[in-house]
Amino acid sequence: MEGTVTIFRPRRARQVIYPSAALIALAMVGGAVIAPSGGRGAWGLGSRLALVATAAVVVAFLHRLADVRVVAGETHVDVVNIVHRRRLEYAEVVGVRLLRDDPWMMLDLSDGEPLAAMGVQQSDGEYAREQTARFARLVAEHSPLNHPE
């Protein structure tokens, strides 16, 4: 993206997810290292590697949860959710809302479909409401109605 870029990310989720991911990785890798290697309950190399691989998968998934964001550039918006990424022109965004029962910011699109924008999460409270208002202002500033050709 060229020009000014504004990134909207959740706070609370990242504060919980990344330390949790580190603890899970430490516990699982530590378990693979200290698991018994002899006797009746011995762990072989394959079992140890499977535990480390499971740790890597769990940490990667947790990173995807924490890495959600909305990136507002000069000409378009990228909405990065857990599984999907979508690029939108500002003209496609006709409404921005974060209602009391919405878990995250919702974008009303010109095609009539809503789009969850998980980069702003209700769990962040007042910060989320501020971010929603800030994003709505950016959408309004870039609206074709404000820039007739």
Task: Walk me through what this model shows.
The structure is a single chain. With 149 residues, this protein is α+β, with helices and mostly antiparallel strands. 42% of the residues lie in helices and 24% in strands. It folds into two domains: 56 residues; 76 residues, PH-domain like (Roll), CATH 2.30.29. The chain is built from three helices and seven strands. A hairpin with a 4-residue loop joins β6 and β7. It starts with 5 loop residues before the first strand and ends in a 7-residue tail after the last helix. The mean pLDDT is 93.
Describe how the helices and strands are arranged.
Blueprint: E1 6-8, H1 12-34, H2 45-66, E2 69-72, E3 76-80, E4 85-89, E5 93-97, E6 104-109, E7 114-121, H3 126-142
Antiparallel strand pairs: 1-2, 2-3, 3-4, 5-6, 6-7
Helix pairs in contact: 1-2
Number of domains: 2
CATH topology of the largest domain: PH-domain like
- SSE pattern, N- to C-terminal: EHHEEEEEEH
Kindly report the average pLDDT value.
93
CATH class of the largest domain: Mainly Beta
Rg on CA atoms, Å? 21 Å
Q: Characterize the main sheet.
A: 4 strands, antiparallel
Distinct helical segment count: 3
Low-confidence parts: none
- Sequence of strands across the biggest β-sheet: 1-2-3-4
Strand content: 15-25%
Distance between the termini: 23 Å
Keywords, please?
single chain, 149 residues, alpha+beta, PH-domain like, 2 domains, 4-stranded antiparallel sheet, 3-stranded antiparallel sheet, 3 helices, 7 strands, 42% helix, 24% strand, elongated
